[in-house]
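Give me the fold.
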Amino acid sequence: MRRISLLNALLVLVLAGLVPGYGSAGELAGNPQPLNDDVVLPMPGGRVMAFRPVCIGEGGTSYAWKRFRVGDPAGGYKESPTGVALGGAFKVAQSAAEDWCYYIGKYEVTEDQVFAVLQSPKEFENSSLPVRSLSWFEASDFLKAYNQWLYDNAPKDIPAHGGVPGFLRLPTEIEWEFAARGGSEVDSAGFDRKIPYPAEQLAEFEWFAGPKSSHNKVKKIGLLKPNVLGLHDMLGNVAEMTGTLYQIEYYQGRSGGYVAKGGHYLTDAQQLRSSLRTEQEFYSVDSKKNVVAPAKKETLGFRPVLASLVFPNRQVSSQMSDDWDTYRQGTAQTLPAAISTGSTSARTQVSGTDASAHLNRLKAELARSGEVAGPVQQELDLLAASLADIQFTIKQAEQDSAYSWVKIGGEQAFFIAKEAKKLPILANLIQSALSSQRNEMAEKYREREAEIRQNIEQAMSSYTESIRQLGTTSAPAVHEGFERYAQFLHKRNATQQSKLLTTVRRHADEYLKDKRTEDEQWKKQLVEGESGTP
């Protein structure tokens, strides 16, 4: 009883804002589910805004970028999977080394937080609902005012890069989707999924349309479980503004309105996904009243990111200049700025074509300047032949690589199917042992069952990786690799493996088309394919 009384008394003091280190009721509302590594910034009136670190997992070098794919085939041509690269804003000490991170709002910005900074409208005060019906410009005005308040009142609380405090802004589309997918806290298979948690648990994490979730009404922030990064309501409740102009292919094409990410409380559960993106207008037109005004929507809100300057001082600029050549000759060659998501041979074909064009221009210039000496012409011809040989060698190496990955994938698929056939047998043995009260034997069977399931998961990880690696080779090389392996199995009378190879080939074709893995679905198909289940 004494413990309950003390807790009640403490709660009264906290709500009154009289306990040092706790702040006011506004602070509780600003971070209803606190975590130890939250970055919490003060706000006017004792309120707070909480942020979560999103680290890219690529170390602390000057040009540490995280390469990944945004988009999903489920979104059609507007979400065609596209290779991108992302960097962080602040260098943060991790357990083993430094890493680049940025910070994103843990929750959607609330009406009360807008009131705290702007002191209007009055009806926003003490409301934990996400702010809606603000235009993109009003959201930017709020961030501008809040930045100024922080610089004036709490500059030392703001994370800094190069000694310069960071600043709040709307996230880019790439920053938002990386965080929504779970960032570097999930494996590549998890990152590829439409949502970063099991679909059957969606209602535990997101507010969507209907009686199983929102009942078609907006909800207070932080009521549901967060994603793996500790972020709440990323895919539902309200859609969220970004600072990215809308282009159909993410970073090419016409620039239109701005990108909004995620679904909202009126979005069907089947439509929620990390890649969901819509174009939002900056201005709305009322043709009946002949009025144009900044556009606002009841289903649209925002959450900010805490970012930094790329070049905060001369020292950072000088270091990045010194590191540039090494970066361009190394990591940069595999990043989207230099290549697409095509195969190795396709990428080298582009470089080879460019080199040949340069060589032809050189020949033309030499020819215009006068007669080309015989030895010079011979060297130019040898160079042209060498370029052709390089292309041939790369093509051969790509074919060999594709065959190796097909073989690895085929063998892992067969192992998965064979191991899975043991599970129903073990289930029967466990039931039989329990029925005859042989509990010790039942426990041994359970241990064996757990071991088999672990083996399947490990093999599945290897299998999906082999499919991803096939995605780095050209479609013709993949086709030839499957043909070679099919002949290999035929010569050895491996009938079951040959049948299963059809499923493996289908998975490879799907990945070459969509650039996404579907590990759970593929695992089910491998088991059914081997056993002959339609």
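The chain has two domains: 31-307, 394-531.
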